[in-house]
Design a protein that fits this description.
Layout lengths: L1 H7 E2 L4 E3 L6 H14 L2 E5 L8 E7 L2 E7 L5 E5 L14 E3 L3 E2 L6 E2 L5 E3 L3 H5 L14 E5 L2 E5 L7 H5 L2 H9 L6 E12 L3 H10 L9 H7 L13 E5 L5 E6 L3 H9 L1 H8 L3 H15 E8 L3 E4 L4 E7 L5 E10 L4 H14 L5 H16 L9 E3 L9 E3 L2 E7 L4 H15 L10 H9 L1
Bound molecules: FE2/S2 (inorganic) cluster.
The site of FE2/S2 (inorganic) cluster has 9 residues, from loops.
Amino acid sequence: VRDNATRIFDKDAGTIEASAYVDPDIYRLELDTIFRRSWLFLAHETQIPNPGDFLATYMGEDPVVVARQKDGEVKAFLNQCRHRGMRLCRSDAGKASNFTCVYHGWVYGLGGELVNVPLEEPAYGTVDRAAWSARPVPRIARYKGLIFGCWDENAPDFVDYLGDAAFYLDILLDRSPAGTEAIGGIHKWVIPCNWKFAAEQFAADSYHALFAHLSAAAVTMPDGSYSADWGGNGFQFTSDRGHGTGFLLDAGRREMLTAFVGPEVARYAMEEGMDSAVERLGVARGQRIHAQHMTIFPNFSFLPSVNTVRVWHPKGPNEIEVWAWSLVDADASDAVKEAYRVGGLRSFSASGIFEQEDGENWVEIQRCLQGPVARDTTFHVGMGLGRSSIDDPDFPGELGWVFSEVAARGFYSQWQRLLTDPDAPLIPSTRREEARHAAE
Ligand code: FES
C-alpha cells in the first residue's frame, strides 16, 4: 500500500490517481499515519466553558471525549472503557462529574482517570487505577479559542505545526480583543464522499466558485452587482505541512458578504467590526481579504467571511460526517450574532444553498468512483504548475494566484509524505536544517 501511495500522487506532473479517494487500504493507512499523528481539531473553548462541560467527538475514527477540568484545564481521552471496550460516553455533549460505563459500571473521572470499579474488592482484589484509566490524548493545544489534540507525544508544538498558516487562521480568530464565540448547535450530516474532496476544496479551490456557485451567487447578491472582474485579484497560500488557503482582495467584498451571509453581516464586517480588525490584523487581513477558504491539515476547514467552521470526520473511504457551526466575535451584538447564525444556515450548512452545490459535486464524483474503470483514472491537479511563485510583502509563505492548485499540491504532498514514511516528521525539515544536519 505504501508503494502504491508513492505512485498515486505526482507533484511535479500535477496528477493524482482516482484510487486515492476510494481504495480501502489507502483509507486504513490514512487513519494509521495521518490521523494518528497530526494535530486534529477537538472543540472551541466556548463549547465547554465550565468545569464538567464535555463534548464527545472524533479524532479520525477514534471516538474521544473533550472535557473541561475542575481547574479550568482541558483534557481529552479515548471514549472507550478499558474493561471490555464499550463506548464510555454516549451523549454528544453535556455536563458531568464523571462518566459511568453502561455495560458493567466502571466509573471514570473528567480526565478519563478510573475512579471506581463495582465489586472491586471481592471480584478483583484491587484494580490498578492508573494502569486502567481511559487512554489520554497526550497532547492538547489551545490556540485563540480553538482546542486541538494529537496522539503523538513527540509531535511539534501546534504553533510550529501551523507555521505561516497562523497568519491566515488569525483572520478568523483575531478580529476582536474579546476573541470568538461558537454559537448555535453543531450541525451534523453525512455526505457519501471521500474526506479529501472537502478538505482539499477548502484548502485550494476558489476555481469552482466561478462556476458551481455562480447562479446561487447571482440570486443572493444585490441586483446587478456581480462583476466578472473581481475574480482576478487574489492569492492562494500553500504550506509544507499541508495547510492551504485562498482569497480575493478588495473589489466585491460587500457584495460577496451580502450574498453569503446577508446585509447585516456585511455592514458589521465592513463598518463597526472593521476598525478593531484592522488594528489587530493590519489592513491587508482586516480590510482587503474576502471570500477566504482554508483548511488546517488534515480535516479542519472554515470560511472566515461566512464564519462557518467545520470538521470533515472520515467514516470509511466513501463517507464523511460533517460537523459545522458558526463562530462570531464574542463582543458583537446579539443581532449581529444572530445574523451570522442565520446567514450561515442559509449559505453553508446542511440546508445551505452553496453547501448543496459542493455536496452534489462530491457525491457524484464518489458515485463515479464505484466503477472499476473510473477508479483506475488519473486526475489533473496541475493548475499553476511551472508558474513562478508570487512574492507579496503583505502575505507570508509560498503564494500562487488565487486560481491555481498550488495549495492542493501542498495538501497532497503532506498527505503522501506521512502516508509513505511512518517516520516522516510532521514538519518537513527545511533546506537550512538539512544543511545543518549534513554539516554535523
Ligand atoms: Fe465498561 Fe465493562 S465494558 S464496565
